[in-house]
Amino acid sequence: THLASAKPQENLILLHHATIDTDIVPSLNYHIFALEESRPQYYIVQFSDKIKEEWKLYLAKQGIVTSWYIPNNALVLKLNGTQLEDLKALSFIKWIGHYSASIKLSEELTESANTMSVFNQSEIVNISILLFSQDHFKELKALFEKNNIQKFKFQTNALIVNASLPLHLVETVSLMEGIQWVEEKQSKQLFNEKYS
Known about the structure:
Blueprint: E1 12-14, E2 19-21, H1 31-36, E3 41-47, H2 53-61, E4 65-70, E5 74-79, H3 81-88, E6 93-98, H4 101-104, H5 107-114, E7 124-131, H6 137-146, E8 152-155, E9 160-166, H7 168-175, E10 179-184
């Protein structure tokens, strides 16, 4: 039998369907990439301790857009190359990782995409897409129009797009920078069948 580790859990970043142990997964070296990349991108940034108000004020003064908190001690930040380089040098930053496509897809969609074959790549799936901001809908809509996707609806107040599209396009959607989360759309059950 193994005893539970007494190691603090502060190094763990707890995502929807995955956990990143920042003591094991190295913070990626963005030096060359960041300087060449002029378009801001989303990153997970873990702080060395509970996030202090002074650190958030520092980010705001640098013009850094904060999207949301992720346990433990992490924020999703929209950064350009210069901001990324500046953050790497700060003593209160523990770890930085790109908010990649693998983080954005639900476990079910990841499995479906991994088992996709020539036979089911055109299978239509109903998905819900959570955007970082309304600004990203234009790019998503352009992808839909290019691929003749006509069944989609944007809920502007919730930043959610519900769409029916071929399975092979799900990964393309997850690769888009403005996408926060993609999952299969759950159909609403209007009544409990057990009692009808």
